Amino acid sequence: MRPYILLYVTDVARSQAWYERLGFAPHRQGRHGTWAELLWTGSEGEGFLLYLHGNPEARPAGFALPGFEVTGPLEDVAARLAPLSCGETPAIVDEGFGRTLNLRDPDGYEWQLVEHEPELYV
């Protein structure tokens, strides 16, 4: 799995330009300009993803959703985490870029797992 942060932004292009100036590189783009993925590659060659999701409504300052990009089926990850889920059975949701699964840790922090489907991109 590879970690990422999902930011809800009001203008994807503007935010993408800003993060590119910080050193993030374009990785994948959504078809309709409402989604961009940027990649930070550190000195050790490890990658970190930043997802920018367009939302016309302003979000509270500091709103972000941490998560992981998974390389296998979400069902496998959900089964592995089931003993820790406190009785919850999280739903897998179809998105415009693949599928997601949102989980809460024992303290209530929400994490998103994403399974990409590259054919849904431009």
UniProtKB/TrEMBL annotation:
CDD domains (UniProt xref): VOC
Residues of the VOC domain: 1-116
SUPFAM superfamilies on file: Glyoxalase/Bleomycin resistance protein/Dihydroxybiphenyl dioxygenase
Protein name: VOC domain-containing protein
Organism name: Deinococcus radiodurans (strain ATCC 13939 / DSM 20539 / JCM 16871 / CCUG 27074 / LMG 4051 / NBRC 15346 / NCIMB 9279 / VKM B-1422 / R1)
